[in-house]
Amino acid sequence: MSRLVIAGVEIENPFCLAPLAGYTDYAMRKISSDYGAGLLYTEMESCEALFYRSKATIQDLLDTKLDKKNCQNSKLALQIFGGKEDVILHTIPMIEELASYDFLDFNCGCPVPKVIRQQAGSYWLKRQDELIHLVKEMVKISNKPVILKMRIGYSDYKDIVPLCVKLQDAGVQAIALHGRTRNEFFSGEVHYGIIREVKDHLSIPVIANGEISQENYLSVKEKTHADGFMIGQHAMGYPKIFEDLNRIEEGKEPRETTLFSQLEDLRKHIDLLYQIKDERKASSNLRSIAVHYIKAFKDSKKYRALLVKATSKEEYERIISDMQNHL
């Protein structure tokens, strides 16, 4: 089994849970860790929100202490975003006081309009000189290795290689690279060849990101020569993907996935989520999460409709028990 090493920190395997807004809270990180994810990422945390002492953001940071306690076979990258250098730098000591993590990750890849309007996320690819300066200052201040998640460009990828070289020279210890530009959003071809070009020019680890699944993992590995592989959409409702990928890496066939096993994983996810959130917030989050666990199975439409309307843990439990009793 190949291992991923970032700034001297050894990670059990090269498979990483991507940061997904609204999804990769402690509950999803824990179940992904149990299935063998080597590196976990938090959701994007807003430096601006932390600067103004957002209770939700502070709680997210405090929840990382649960990772340290209960996800001991995985490492954690705490991802932050923002568009104002002074705010970002001001919040790093606050983050270090509140959170427990292994890497500080700065987001230069989020393409959504509300983040772009803050001149954050992918917009940093249009602010390259400012980005290099910011990264140098982050590296000076942070007591943890600074890593980046980014895209191959804003509207094109002609200057991504020299930019990544400059980021490496500025002190970045690893780069996770989504193989699309900002303007390509989440559709169209993933340019794995561009990730390979970046990898060929860097000495720090490169983590490939974009549409990676069990079916194409070996192909992506061959095309990119990446050090790590980041799984996002394909992990939603299917944390077992990390076990599958580890088995594939070892030359083994993945274990069979059944609707019963998926429902058991959903039950675990529900238990974990209600441990860290109150009933209203947990139920609200689950309406978008729960359906992913059963979406691949036929005749699930009726139950999907019930899951998106459930308002309590007991209601979710009844729906899952009903489904299992009808298998």
Topology diagram in text:
Elements: E1 4-6, E2 9-11, E3 15-17, H1 26-34, E4 39-41, E5 45-46, H2 47-51, H3 55-70, E6 75-81, H4 85-98, E7 103-108, H5 113-116, H6 128-141, E8 146-151, H7 160-170, E9 175-178, H8 192-201, E10 206-209, H9 217-224, E11 228-231, H10 241-249, H11 259-276, H12 279-289, H13 301-307, H14 313-325
Parallel strand pairs: 3-4, 3-11, 4-6, 5-6, 6-7, 7-8, 8-9, 9-10, 10-11
Antiparallel strand pairs: 1-2
Helix pairs in contact: 1-11, 4-6, 6-7, 7-8, 11-12, 11-14
What does this structure look like?
With 327 residues, the chain is of the alpha/beta class. The protein contains 14 helices and 11 strands. The strands form 2 sheets. An 8-stranded parallel β-barrel has the order 3-4-6-7-8-9-10-11, surrounded by 6 helices. Strands 1-2 form a two-stranded antiparallel sheet. The mean pLDDT is 96.
